Amino acid sequence: MAGTETVLLYNFENSPKLRGLKMIFLKMGIRMRMVTPDMYLQTIGALAHIKGYEWTDQVYEGDGFSDEMMVMSGFSNARLDELLRQMRKNKIPRIALKAIVTAHNASWNSLMLHGELGKEHAMMTGGASSSQNAMMDAVIYKGKGQFALEQRKIPSIVHPKDAIVKVTLASICTSDLHIKHGSVPKAVPGIVVGHEMVGQIVQLGSQVSGLAVGDRVAVNVETFCGECFFCQNGFVNNCTDANGGWALGCRIDGGQAEYVRVPFAQNGLTKIPDNVTDEQAIFTGDILSTGYWGAKISEIRKNDVVAVIGAGPTGICAMLCARLYEPSQIIAIDIDESRLALVREHGIAHVTINSSDSDPEQIIRQITDGRGADVVIEAAGGKDTFQTAWKIARPNAIVTVLALYEEDQILPLPHMYGKNLTFKTGGVDACDCSRILELISDGKLDTTCLITHRFPLKDAMKAYELFENKEDHVMKVVLKP
Ligand SMILES: NC(=O)c1ccc[n+]([C@@H]2O[C@H](COP(=O)([O-])OP(=O)(O)OC[C@H]3O[C@@H](n4cnc5c(N)ncnc54)[C@H](O)[C@@H]3O)[C@@H](O)[C@H]2O)c1
Ligand SMILES: [Zn+2]
Ligand SMILES: [Zn+2]
């Protein structure tokens, strides 16, 4: 009996089925170690790593159990029943199962426990390293003007409401460039950047419900507690928690990496429907949320004429979401002909206007019997685009400003007196991700045409160079860890 080799980690005192399994293990003389739900996943991950075992975070649904099976988590109940049956019949070689872990919920919130585990590791391995040393690739904000691909520790759960997500696809956002250029004062040098990603849950804190290890999820750009005044009113961008608002990849480590820790995981992660691919879901938490929110707050009515300034990723998401309200026309305005061409190619807008060689105000007046657009969404952030926005709006229109300007803007109230405009501005309240994924799943929203370039995470610096220099008509770049 390989008593020193075989360790059963368990935290299933409350389950009769699992207690049965424990008894069998005891009879087999397998060394047992009680771990709290807080530490079990971290523990098996670490053990697997140290002992060179194959380690999977997938729920096991395969046929039977073999000598090869070493470390596993997330057994489904059906597989567990089968395992029990086979073990009772003595069909499974006694030393085959080096470690079995069976619970689904875990978190790692105590450094003390980590220390204790470290001792266990030392005991098992004769002083070898622990999981604290497991490393990953990550894009780091080094300081103004500098990003670099570096090795970082794989994150672990620090709060019971956290989740650890294995990133399967990340993207680069214009806001990442704002960080690089030093124009995001809250950005903390040294952090892992990236706030638009999808992945798979590999660890869950003990206070996260409604999600399971193995779930494919879209990560929300915003972290929100769900409990403060603003969260209760849906204004999650202004969540008053210390990590509230845009924290990921700005104030705390983000997702241009192999793994990311997501605080308030229950609010910040949304399950991706099975028929939706990573590329279809990638923009859910950031630019698609922005487009969705922008269209929503613009109060678009059926048959409205909606003008969107900026045919960049954000503007295009706004156009795609504006369509959901059945406007009579969507007018896309940009100075970049290749972007307008993409809009035409995919039928995203009814009319495109290149404002570098024609006057949008004049054209829109022609289209609208001299009135102007019923709704204007400004998603360009150019030098003159705020002025264009209010000028092309008809009296009593709603003008929604999604753009983030690097300079102050002038609101020339005397000139617009009597036009009775309503301005709406701000950072997205990204709390409609479930609805967005449903629309994607139903084929009503498709942003895959925005992905013009794909790079492995290892080539992130090349990807940044291309994105920053707007080479090769780049729209969106995705990074695959
Ligand atoms: N409010 C939010 O929560 C939120 C979220 C995401 C992005 N944003 C902001 O939205 C804006 C757009 O983001 P993006 O990723 O699409 O950026 P982008 O730079 O890719 O797109 C901007 C588009 O505007 C066009 N443009 C620039 N100057 C123009 C001008 N003078 N006239 C007409 N078109 C002009 C550009 O050619 C480009 O196609 C940025 O300011 C970004 O910071 C805001
Ligand atoms: Zn962004
Ligand atoms: Zn809150």
TrEMBL record:
Record the organism: Candidatus Scybalocola faecigallinarum
Which cofactors, by name? Zn(2+)
Q: What is this protein called?
A: DUF3783 domain-containing protein
A molecular-function term among this protein's GO annotations:
zinc ion binding
InterPro entries listed in its UniProt record: ADH-like_C, ADH-like_N, ADH_Zn_CS, ER, GroES-like_sf, NAD(P)-bd_dom_sf, UCP014543
Instruction: Read off the Pfam families from this record.
Output: ADH_N, ADH_zinc_N, DUF3783
Query: What PROSITE patterns has UniProt attached to this entry?
Result: ADH_ZINC
Q: Where is the Enoyl reductase (ER) domain?
A: 145-479
**What Gene3D superfamilies does the database record attribute to this sequence?**
Medium-chain alcohol dehydrogenases, catalytic domain, NAD(P)-binding Rossmann-like Domain
Q: Which SMART domains did the record assign?
A: PKS_ER
The signal sequence is none
Q: Could you tell me the keywords of this UniProt record?
A: Metal-binding, Oxidoreductase, Zinc
The UniProt similarity line reads:
Belongs to the zinc-containing alcohol dehydrogenase family.
